[in-house]
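Q: I'm building a small set of examples for a reading group on sequence design. Run inverse folding on the following structure and report the sequence directly after it, with nothing in between.
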C-alpha cells in the first residue's frame, strides 16, 4: 500500500514537474521572415523560427515546421532575420576628456551603475545582444551583469574584463607592478567574475602622457599576467597600438589586441598565424567620431590626436583585412552612439566593408566571429537550434548590402522581444 502510494505520489510529482516545465517555457514562433545565411549558405525564405523559453528549438521553411497550438506567433513577413549583433569593445561607464566627461567628475558608484544600466538598455534596443566590457570601474560591471541575468535590469549579455590592469603610469586605472603584483591584480578581477583580462601594453589616444608606441612592461610582467589568466581559463586582451609591445605580447600568447592603431603588416600576419584577435574600433578615429568628440566638448589636443591616429588606423585595418587577421567587431563608443546617421556598432561594420571586407564577412565579424572569440559559439552568434534566441530583423539581405543594418526594427534577446517597431505602443 505504502509502495503504491509512493508510486502515485512520484507520478504526481512527474506530472507536476512536466507541467511546471511547460508553463515556464513559453513558445514563440517568428513566422514568414527570411533567415540570413550567416555561413554563406542560401537564406531560408519564408521561415519559421520556433523558440522555447530562451532558446531556439527549430528553424526551417514554413512548409516543414509546424507551429504548435498555443504558440505566440509574431509575423515577420518581408523581414530578414539575423543573429543579434555583438560588440566586443564597450565601456558602459565611459567618460571621455571634455565637458561631458567633466560633468561626471564627481559621479558616485551608485550613480554610475545606474547610468551604465541605461546605456545597457539602449545598447540592446539598438540591436546589440552581447557585449564584451573591456574596462569598467569598481566592480560596477559585475553588479550590472548580475542584475541583467536576474532580469532586474535590461541589457545585452555581458562578458567583462573588470578593471584595466596596467603598470604604473599606463593607460588604465588599476596599477600593478612586477610579476606578482600583476598576477594578484588579475586574480582579483577573476575572483570578482571577470571572464577576460584587459591590460594596456601601450599608451592611448586619450592619454596626456606616454607614447602610443612605447612597450613599458617587462617580459617577466607580460608573461606572468598572460600565464595567470590562461591558468584560470580566462582570455587576455591588450589595448595596443605599438608593434614592439605587440611582438612581446604575441611571444607570450596574448589572445587579442584592441585598436591596433599602428600595427604593421608583419604583426598582422603573425596574428593571423597565431589566431590572435583584432578588435579594430575603427569608428573612434574616423570622421563620424570627430562630430561626436566635438559634441561632448573634447579638447582640441584630443581631436588632433584622434585625427592623426586615424590615417594609420585606417591603413592598418585595410591590411588586416587583406592578410586575413581574425577580426571581431568593437567600437569603443557606446554601441548605440549616433555615428554618421546610424549607430557606432553599425557604422563600424560599414567601415569594415569600406576597408575591403565583403558584407557577409562584416556581418560575421559582428556575430559568429565574436562568438568564436568569446568561446561561446554553442550559445550565441547564429540563429540555430539550441542557441539562445538572440535575433534581430532588418528590411533586406545584409549580406548583399551592409547598410541595411540601419533598418533594424526588431530585437529579441533570449526569447524575449525587447523591441518590435511593427507593434504600436
Ligand atoms: Zn576602450
Amino acid at each position: 500500500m505504502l509502495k503504491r502510494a509512493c508510486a502515485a505520489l512520484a507520478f504526481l510529482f512527474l506530472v507536476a514537474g512536466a507541467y511546471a516545465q511547460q508553463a515556464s517555457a513559453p513558445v514563440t514562433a517568428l513566422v514568414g521572415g527570411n533567415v540570413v545565411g550567416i555561413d554563406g549558405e542560401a537564406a531560408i525564405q519564408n521561415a519559421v523560427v520556433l523558440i522555447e523559453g530562451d532558446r531556439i528549438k527549430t528553424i526551417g521553411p514554413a512548409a516543414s515546421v509546424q507551429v504548435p497550438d498555443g504558440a505566440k506567433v509574431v509575423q515577420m513577413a518581408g523581414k530578414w532575420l539575423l543573429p543579434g549583433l555583438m560588440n566586443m569593445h564597450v565601456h558602459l561607464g565611459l567618460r571621455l576628456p571634455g565637458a561631458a566627461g567633466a560633468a561626471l567628475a564627481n559621479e558616485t558608484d551608485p550613480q554610475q551603475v545606474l547610468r551604465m544600466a541605461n546605456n545597457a538598455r539602449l545598447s540592446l534596443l539598438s540591436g546589440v545582444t552581447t557585449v564584451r566590457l573591456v574596462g569598467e570601474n569598481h566592480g560596477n560591471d559585475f553588479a550590472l551583469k548580475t542584475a541583467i541575468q536576474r532580469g532586474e535590469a535590461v541589457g545585452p549579455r555581458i562578458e567583462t574584463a573588470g578593471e584595466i590592469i596596467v603598470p604604473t603610469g599606463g593607460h588604465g586605472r588599476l596599477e600593478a607592478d612586477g610579476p606578482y603584483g600583476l598576477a594578484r591584480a588579475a586574480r582579483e578581477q577573476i575572483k570578482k567574475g571577470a571572464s577576460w583580462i584587459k591590460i594596456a601594453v601601450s599608451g592611448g589616444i586619450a592619454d596626456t602622457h606616454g607614447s602610443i608606441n612605447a612597450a613599458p612592461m617587462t617580459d617577466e610582467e607580460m608573461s606572468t599576467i598572460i600565464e595567470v589568466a590562461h591558468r584560470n581559463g580566462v582570455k587576455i586582451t591588450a589595448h595596443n597600438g605599438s608593434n614592439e609591445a605587440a611582438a612581446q605580447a604575441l611571444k607570450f600568447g596574448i589572445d587579442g589586441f584592441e585598436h591596433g592603431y599602428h600595427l604593421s603588416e608583419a604583426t598582422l600576419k603573425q596574428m593571423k598565424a597565431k589566431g590572435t584577435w583584432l578588435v579594430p574600433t575603427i569608428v573612434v578615429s574616423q570622421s563620424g567620431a570627430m562630430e561626436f568628440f566635438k559634441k561632448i566638448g573634447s579638447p582640441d589636443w584630443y581631436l588632433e590626436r584622434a585625427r592623426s591616429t586615424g590615417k594609420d588606423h585606417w591603413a592598418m585595418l585595410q591590411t588586416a583585412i587583406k592578410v586575413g587577421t581574425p577580426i571581431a567587431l568593437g567600437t569603443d563608443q557606446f554601441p548605440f552612439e549616433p555615428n554618421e546617421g546610424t549607430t557606432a556598432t553599425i557604422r563600424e561594420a560599414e567601415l569594415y566593408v569600406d576597408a575591403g571586407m565583403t558584407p557577409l564577412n562584416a556581418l560575421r565579424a559582428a556575430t559568429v566571429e565574436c562568438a568564436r572569440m568569446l568561446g561561446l559559439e554553442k550559445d550565441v552568434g547564429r540563429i540555430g537550434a539550441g542557441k539562445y534566441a538572440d535575433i534581430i530583423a532588418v528590411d533586406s539581405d545584409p549580406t548583399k548590402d551592409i547598410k541595411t543594418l540601419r533598418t533594424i526594427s526588431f530585437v529579441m534577446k533570449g526569447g524575449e522581444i525587447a523591441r518590435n517597431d511593427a507593434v504600436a505602443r
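The chain has 13 helices and 19 strands.
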